[in-house]
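About this split. The held-out portion is used to measure sequence recovery: a designer receives only the structure tokens and must propose an amino acid at every position. Recovery is the fraction of positions where the proposal matches the reference. Here is one held-out target exactly as it appears in the evaluation file.
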């Protein structure tokens, strides 16, 4: 029984960590991660969204992303920071940021995905670009899963590949 106690303790410590890696990334977390990756540059403009509290830890990231034209909000002066970011939203932000860095944002011809009808018209080029450049992995069954959300582990992989 004494040998089992350390194993159970280790298991209880690892389960929350594993769950955190699989937790969906919110819109505020995604923008914050991109901002941090970019060097946490200060923003020149003011905060444009009514649902971004002043002095929130991710407020500078939201201002930076808005100043660069990466984000436009979800309508009605809202950013909806706590909502999980969709794969197509993440692809748009990544492509816009790549363009601001002067990177090539054209995309190679891809085989049509099995869920192309689920991609929003405003996101199709960006989602195909993110998949075609290898930033985002395809989902099972040849799907881009545009309405799916990103996990912390997927975000980490995306930023690692974006660095290359």
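Reference sequence for scoring:
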């Amino acid at each position: 029984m004494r040998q089992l106690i350390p194993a159970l303790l280790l298991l209880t410590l690892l389960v929350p960590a594993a769950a955190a890696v699989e937790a969906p990334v919110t819109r505020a977390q995604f923008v914050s991660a991109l901002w941090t990756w970019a060097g946490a540059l200060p923003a020149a403009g003011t905060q444009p969204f009514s649902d971004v509290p002043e002095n929130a830890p991710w407020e500078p990231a939201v201002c930076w992303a808005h100043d660069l034209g990466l984000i436009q909000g979800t309508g009605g002066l809202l950013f909806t920071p706590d909502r999980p970011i969709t794969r197509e939203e993440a692809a748009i932000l990544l492509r816009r940021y790549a363009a601001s860095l002067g990177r090539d944002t054209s995309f190679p011809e891809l085989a049509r995905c099995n869920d192309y009808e689920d991609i929003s018209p405003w996101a199709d080029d960006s989602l195909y670009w993110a998949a075609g450049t290898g930033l985002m992995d395809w989902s099972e069954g040849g799907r881009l899963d545009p309405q799916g959300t990103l996990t912390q582990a997927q975000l980490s992989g995306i930023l690692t590949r974006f660095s290359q």
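Annotator remark: Helices lie at 4-22, 27-37, 59-67, 87-100, 124-132, 152-163.
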